[in-house]
Please model this.
Amino acid sequence: MSFETKLNDGIFCIPKCDDCKKIVWPPADLCNHCFGNVSLKEGEFEGKIIEFSSKENLYFCLVEFEKTFRIIATILKTPDVGQSVKISKCGIIGGDYFFEVN
Amino acid sequence: MNKVGIVGYGITPFTKDDKKIESILIDSVKELFKNNSDINRNDVDAVLVSTNNNSKYLSPILSEMIGIQPKIAHSIENLCNSGTNSIVSAYSYIASGLADMVLVSGAERYDSPGSVLEWDVSRGEYKHPIFWSSIFTKSYKRKYNISEERLSMVSVKNHKQAKENPNALSNRVFTIGDVINSKQLTDDLRLLDCSRPCTGSASIILGTEEKVKKLSKEPIWITGIGQKTTSAGFTKNISFTSMDSTKQAVDTALKMSKKTITNIDVVELHDAFSVCEPLALESLGFSEDGTGVDLVKELYDTNNFKINPRGGLIGCGHPLGATGIAQTIEITQQLQSNANKRQVDNAKVGLIHNMSAAATSSTVLILEK
Model:
């Protein structure tokens, strides 16, 4: 099953290379380090807020996971830099990925 | 490698006009040949079109529209630095001996699809450039304790300078109060902090040493080129308070030209948003980290047009595929002492900084008399 299919079901996965075990981000079919096959790891991954801003009172933040990759996610409560967060909601709407953390 | 210089250029005003891309392209090419009547169109070996427009086969189309049959004709797209990427390609064709004269023409419509990088899924629903620039702005302000007022000086300065540029989209001056009270787009970004997408075109012909000496009364040479792509995705940037690709590109360009940053007299840099100007000034080496805004204020207070004399992207507008070429034309005019009210005194060495997608890719060119 692809990252996108899982995401569409509301499940956030981390793609990892079967051979070299590196995280492959953005999600891809092949590892960008060794061209190995990629598998999806499910879990409650903890990330850290690197930076944030807001638009019309809705916060968006840059979150780093596994000290490796980052995403921009919505957060409903006022965030802090360095704050630990987990994915609370994710999916695809109108072709766009969305991520929410808390 | 053969020496490469600038034979001629043409540029037309940036607007919000709703015109076909082919019509936009021909505008600046027509201007180029009108202003350089000694250039024989049939001597153009290659035609490169710089654009993010979805129309296909634009270089052969442009060639047919101007009645020539070049050896080489193709488009080049690399989002916001398509223009300087095209110039680097033209340089390479000439330096290698594959072409003697190359026409590089950049054009974009106000509704360019190049404004948003759909591939970058790490941005989630926050794909518009205002979001990456907000992250950069917040980080920069936080790290160096920079106020919104101090940062707004970039927009104030560049709009003032654009007023002296007849091709700029903006012809208004603004105060700090105007900028910080303009429409709030995000917590860290106001409308007047942003360059605006627009319709525009700019064309330049590069040539061999022989062609330049024969056809240009005031030869200008490309003596340094540096390029670096660190990633495609915004979130892969290692820093949000500097531009890593720019640091690496300027280092390469200065080494090639055997210059240091202190030798540079005039600069066009990629101020897509206010924060980009101090970040670029610091990453290029003109300012210490966190002090780029002080240089911006000093330049404004002393009416010194050294940085972004044409008004930058904020003052001129940002027709993506044309921007890098328009920047190069401005530096050419400056070195030829032909920039009218924007002229920087005694400019002998100029630098162009053009970047893409949140500084994930940068091009730096050095031009000399």
